[in-house]
Amino acid sequence: MFNKISVIGLGYIGLPTAAIFASRQKKVLGIDIDASIVRKINKGEIHITEPGLNSIVHSVFNEGYLKASVQVEPADVFIIAVPTPFKKNNSEIPTPDLKHIKAAVMSIAPVLTKGNLVILESTSPVGTTEKISEWLSESRPDLNFPHIHFDEADINIAYCPERVLPGNVVNELIENDRVIGGISLLCSQRSLELYKTFVNGECIITNSRTAEMVKLTENSCRDVQLAFANELSIICDNLNIDVWELISLANRHPRINILNPGPGVGGHCIAVDPWFIVSKSPSDAHIIKLARKINDSKPDWVCDKIKITIAEYLQKNESKTINDVTIAFYGLAFKADIDDLRESPAVIISKKITDTHKGRVLVVEPYINSLPKALSNADLCDFDFAQKEADVHVVLVDHNVFKEASPDCEFMIDTRGIW
C-alpha cells in the first residue's frame, strides 16, 4: 500500500503530480528547497500558472491531503521531479548536469526503509535511473538495491516520465498513456500499481533505459520537426514566399504535417533533451545535433530581421535617430498562454536587442507581473500602451490575447504568423 507519497521538487510537473495524488485521498508531502514555494502551498496557493491546478491545490490542502516542506520525511514512495539542465562548457556538445537529481537522491537516502519505492520523473540521460540505485547503495549499504539484487531488492526504483503539454498538464497527467521503466520487473509492477491510482491512459511496462530513451526520443523528434519548419521559414524569407501560406498548402497533402516555425525552440524539454542523446552518442546523432543547432541559431536570425526593420523605419522617418526608436516585444514565454520562461527564445531575442538598442524597449507579457533580471532595461506594459508608443513591433509568442487583436503596425516582425 502507498499511504504516504513524497514528491521532491514542486515545479511545473512536481506540483501537479503531488496535487493529483492528493486528490485521490493519498497523503502527500511536497518537498522544495525554495521556502517561498513551500509557504505558498501551505496556504493552499500555487506559484505557477496552470489551468485547473489552483482549485485542486486549494481543495486538497484544506482537506489535509497535501502539505509542503523543505525537510524530507519518511514515506512509502519518493517521486523525484527536479530540473535536469545541461552544463555549458567549451565543448560544442553540452553535458547533462545531474546535480539536482543527485541532491534529491541524497536527501531521501537517510529516511529510506525496506519496501520503499523511488521513482524518477525528471527527463534524464540514459542510465540515470541505474545511477540513482548506485548512489543509494553507496549511501545505504544496509539496504539492497535493484541494480544488484533485482526483484530481491529492499528498495524498488523506476523511471516514469511525464509527457504533458504546459497549459493542459492536469488533464494530460490523467488521460495520457504512461511509460513505466523499472530496473527490475518488480520495480515496474509496483510503479504501475502506483500510477493507476490516477492515470486513465494505458500504463506500459518496459525497462528503465528504454523508458529514459522514450522521453528523449519524443522531444528530439519534435525538435527535428521544428528545425525543418524554422529552416523553411528562413528559406522562404530569402525567396519572398509567405511561409505560413506555403505550410498551409503543403499540409493539404494527406501524409504531410509540417509544424509552424517560430523564433526558436524553448522550454525545459525540447530545447534541452536532444543534447542528452547527443552527449551519449556524439558520433552517431547527426540529425538530432543539427536540428539543435538550427533551432538555437533562429533567435540570431530574428535579431538580424529586427535590425533591418529598424533601419527601414529610420530610412522612412529621416528626422528620427536610433535613440528615438521604441521597440515592442509581444510575449516572453516559451509557448502560448503560459508563464514559463525557461529556455525561451523570446527572452533571448528580447535581451539581445535590449542590451544593444539605444532607444526604449517595451515588453507585453500578460502572464507575468515583473520582468526577469535579464530584461531590467526594458519596461513591462500592456498591449494598448505598446501599440500606441512603439515604432517597431515584434511578435514572439502567439498568446490567444494577441491573436484576437487587430493591430495596425507598419514596421513589424511576426515570428508566429498571427498578424
Description:
It is built from 15 helices and 15 strands. It has 419 residues and is α/β, with parallel strands linked by helices. It starts with a strand and ends in a 5-residue tail after the last strand. The model has no long low-confidence stretch (mean pLDDT 96). Strands 3-2-1-4-7-8-9-10 form an eight-stranded mixed β-sheet, with helices on both faces. Strands 13-12-11-14-15 form a five-stranded parallel β-sheet, with helices on both faces. The chain folds into two domains: 4-201, Rossmann fold (3-Layer(aba) Sandwich); 219-414, Rossmann fold (3-Layer(aba) Sandwich), CATH 3.40.50.720. It has helices at 14-23, 35-41, 53-62, 99-108, 128-139, 146-149, 169-175, 185-195, 208-238, 243-250, 273-280, 286-316, 345-356, 383-389, 400-403; strands at residues 4-8, 27-31, 66-69, 77-80, 86-87, 95-96, 117-120, 156-159, 178-182, 203-207, 327-330, 361-364, 379-380, 392-395, 412-414. Helix 13 (345-356) links the parallel strand 11 and strand 12 (361-364).
List keywords for this structure.
2 domains; 419 residues; Rossmann fold; alpha/beta; 5-stranded parallel sheet; globular; 15 strands
Q: What is the CATH topology of the largest domain?
A: Rossmann fold
Number of strands: 15
**Amino- and carboxy-terminal Cα gap:** 54 Å
Number of domain units: 2
Mean pLDDT score, rounded? 96
Q: Structural class from helices and strands?
A: alpha/beta
Helicity, as a percent range: 40-55%
SSE ordering: EHEHHEEEEHEHHEHEHEHHHHEHEEHEHE
Residue ranges: pLDDT <50 for 5 or more in a row? none
Specify the number of helices.
15
Sequence of strands across the biggest β-sheet: 3-2-1-4-7-8-9-10
**Gyration radius, in Å:** 23 Å
Largest sheet: 8 strands, mixed
**CATH architecture assignment of the largest domain:** 3-Layer(aba) Sandwich
CATH domain class name of the largest domain: Alpha Beta
What's the overall geometry?
globular
